[in-house]
Each structure stands twice: as C-alpha cells, then as structure tokens.
Write a structure and sequence with these properties.
This protein has 6 helices and 5 strands; from the N terminus they run αααββαβββαα.
C-alpha cells in the first residue's frame, strides 16, 4: 500500500513538470485561472469599499395618503365589530417595515377572531387582501399584515401586558372617530387576571 501512494505522488510530480497543472490544463491556462485566497492565513487582495450612505426612501405623499385611508378603513372595520380602544400609529418617518400600525382590542377570544375576520373581509373587498396573518384561532393576539400597514388585534388584558403602543410613544397618532362604547371607563371592572 505505501508503494501505491508514493507512485501516485510521483505521477503528479511528473505531470507538473511536463507543462500541465493538477487539472491537466496547460501552463497558459493555469496562469489565467483566478488565484484562490486561503480562508485563514495569507493576506487578502480584496479591497474594502467605503461605507455607503443608506438610500433615502422618498415616499410619495399621495401614496402615503392612500395608505393612511386604507389603515383608517381597517380600524373602522374593527370598530364595526365593537373593537375597544383603537389606536393608529403613523410610523412612516420612523419604521422601515411599514407606514402605519393599528392596535385594537376585543373583550373575548371570539370577539378578537371576529374583529380580525371583519378587517380581512373589508380589506379584501377594497382590493387589499392580507399578505400575512398570524395567531388566528387562538383569540389572544392576531397580527394582520397588509404591507404598508399592520393591524394587531388583542384580547384586551394581553394588549395591556405587551403594551405595544409604548414602543412607538414618540410616533404621531392618527385621529380616529371612536364611539363612546369603544372606550373603557373602568378597565378593572370588566376583566379579571390573565
């Protein structure tokens, strides 16, 4: 066995001396092949680029107004199913993943699912079906992603626990017409513990 290994090494050395490389190409072809840079050790010949500034996103004001109108329509659809304490947050100047975040609560697990279903139905009727939907059927928290805006539908005690609105405390709120029955006068009297 040791003789076979030595024989193979001798054959490889002979091939290299007759003008071919390991792959059997001529020396001219071997010179044109790119130089491989080792992963460790050795110095890289790759030049580093200067950091580029992030491209500024210029949003068309008419597109933002259209998105705002759709987000308000989604929150009105939540109010049609007696959603509680709706909040629409304008994060267009602060966030890169969406322009508006809507947060609304339900009084029960079933109401949370009904609110989410109604928002999806109204948006689908207006030509904007949700791109994604998470948490459906649990009744605790449903996220509806419409791309330019997202809507969080919470069971109210869960909403108070996570307190998403405080993450965007500096973002402006969009003024919504909220009926008196959609506000909580005595939240402790309505709900028990989680």
């Amino acid at each position: 066995m040791p003789g076979k290994s030595a024989k193979k090494l001798a054959e490889k050395a002979a091939r290299r001396t007759d003008g071919t490389d390991r792959a059997g190409r001529g020396q001219a072809a071997a010179r044109k092949a790119p130089v491989r840079i080792p992963v460790r050790g050795g110095k890289s010949k790759v030049k580093t680029r200067a950091p580029q500034e992030a491209p500024t996103q210029t949003r068309n004001k008419s597109d933002l107004a259209e998105t705002r109108a759709l987000a308000v329509a989604a929150m009105e659809a939540a109010l049609d199913k007696r959603g509680l304490e709706p909040v629409l947050i304008d994060v267009s100047a602060m966030g890169s993943y969406t322009d508006f975040i809507g947060v609304v609560s339900g009084r029960s697990d079933r109401q949370v699912d009904a609110i989410a279903e109604n928002v999806c139905a109204v948006m689908k009727a207006s030509g904007r079906p949700p791109l994604g939907r998470e948490g459906t059927g649990t009744g605790r928290w449903t996220l509806l992603d419409f791309g330019a805006f997202v809507v969080h539908v919470f069971y109210h005690p869960v909403r108070e626990f996570y307190d998403l609105e405080s993450l965007w405390i500096e973002a402006p709120r969009v003024k919504l017409v909220v009926p008196p029955e959609a506000t909580l006068a005595q939240p402790d009297a309505l709900y028990g513990a989680l």
